[in-house]
């Protein structure tokens, strides 16, 4: 007997798009149905992306010092979060950071800066960085994320070799003014539209856990579908101390998986990327989430640390997936201390029979 979610997947594969009611049914499914939801969503993932995982790497070109008042953001105006704050990296440092991510297995580098939006001088600065990185790594995809764009800036970035532009809508239009007041929802949509019109691949996603309703999550996803976002990063709120959302903890690992699954049902052929907050909120369900999503960030985020890059790559391998664009040869498992391949079990040296406290 097939589940209603399997029937939904079959309907989508037959060309009938998911409705808002379908999306709500996925989001509100009982926890006992989670594996049915994931199995059905995996059918859509497999149809469009096989068993590959796209690996992305963030380079934070300028951190903090932002005049916008986004309530969730550690870099925002009024935030007292203890984060790194610095002005623009130079081109050599941007190249070094990008190269580290590519060496770790990434195929796309996301070049991000804080602020409302770039000046024309900033765009030229990024254009120079892009040219240098692409001269060293011709096959790399580069996604820029510089804030709200002015006329002509998307075209200049495309000319410089930028492949994609990220600007998240973050939440539903009906909820937007609750989380930021220094720019409008329309401003964000306008920038995504400018990027797409210039020939850049549109990358736009959302942040879950901002106090939105189920209906508003659905509203945001259907807006992203309408925008035809090629890549949809799903972020999970990281409630930094020193921000208005510092005490907001509305997410559970099961809900996060359901949100990702809902995104897959609504946008079956789009890149669904597990983005910020992955380790914090999915925790031990990260591998299960890869059955639904087909893209992750490698290593660290803008102002927070992620798990070690090798742990990310191990997560992908252990769940039977392969890194998109990686060579077919298996990756060696290396001992961090010696650099020599090892599969020797770690010997117990603590707990019963010793004077050292147990690992408990």
TrEMBL record:
One function term, GO molecular function aspect: 4 iron, 4 sulfur cluster binding
Cofactor remark: Binds 1 [4Fe-4S] cluster. The cluster is coordinated with 3 cysteines and an exchangeable S-adenosyl-L-methionine. Binds 1 [2Fe-2S] cluster. The cluster is coordinated with 3 cysteines and 1 arginine.
Gene3D superfamilies recorded: Aldolase class I
Limits of the Radical SAM core domain: 51-275
Keyword Metal-binding (UniProt): yes
Binding of [2Fe-2S] cluster, residues: 110, 143, 203, 273
Membrane-spanning intervals of the chain: none
Region (Disordered): 337-360
Co-factor(s): [4Fe-4S] cluster; [2Fe-2S] cluster
Claim: Cell cycle is one of the keywords in the record: no
Description of how the protein assembles with itself and partners: Homodimer.
Record protein name field: Biotin synthase
Organism expressing this protein natively: Nocardioides flavescens
């Amino acid at each position: 007997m097939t589940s209603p979610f399997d029937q939904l997947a079959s309907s989508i594969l037959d060309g009938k798009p998911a409705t808002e009611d379908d999306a709500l049914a996925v989001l509100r499914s009982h926890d006992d149905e989670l594996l049915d939801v994931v199995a059905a969503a995996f059918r859509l993932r497999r149809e469009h992306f096989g068993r590959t995982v796209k690996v992305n790497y963030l380079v934070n070109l300028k951190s903090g010092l932002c005049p916008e008042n986004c309530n969730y953001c550690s870099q925002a105006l009024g935030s007292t979060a203890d984060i790194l704050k610095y002005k623009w990296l130079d081109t050599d440092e941007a190249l070094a950071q990008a190269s580290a991510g590519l060496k770790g297995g990434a195929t796309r580098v996301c070049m991000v800066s804080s602020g409302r939006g770039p000046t024309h001088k900033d765009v030229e600065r990024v254009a120079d960085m892009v040219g240098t990185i692409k001269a060293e790594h011709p096959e790399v995809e580069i996604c820029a994320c510089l804030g709200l764009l002015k006329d002509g800036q998307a075209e200049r970035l495309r000319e410089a070799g930028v492949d994609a532009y990220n600007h998240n809508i973050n939440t539903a239009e009906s909820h937007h003014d609750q989380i930021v007041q220094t720019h409008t929802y329309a401003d964000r949509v306008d920038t995504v539209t400018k990027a797409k019109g210039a020939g850049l691949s549109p990358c736009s996603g959302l942040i879950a856990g901002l106090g939105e309703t189920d209906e508003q999550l659905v509203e945001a996803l259907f807006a992203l579908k309408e925008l035809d976002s090629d890549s949809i990063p799903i972020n999970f709120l990281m409630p930094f101390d020193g921000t208005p959302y510092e005490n907001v903890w509305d997410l559970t690992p099961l809900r996060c998986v359901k949100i990702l699954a809902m995104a897959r049902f609504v946008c079956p052929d789009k890149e669904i990327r597990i983005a910020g907050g992955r380790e914090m909120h999915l925790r031990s369900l990260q591998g299960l989430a890869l059955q639904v999503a087909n893209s992750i960030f490698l290593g660290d985020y803008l102002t927070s640390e992620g798990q070690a890059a090798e742990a990310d790559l191990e997560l992908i391998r252990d769940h039977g997936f392969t890194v998109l664009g990686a060579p077919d040869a298996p990756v060696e498992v290396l001992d961090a201390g010696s650099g020599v391949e090892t599969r020797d079990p770690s010997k117990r040296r603590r707990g019963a029979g010793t004077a050292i406290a147990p690992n408990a």
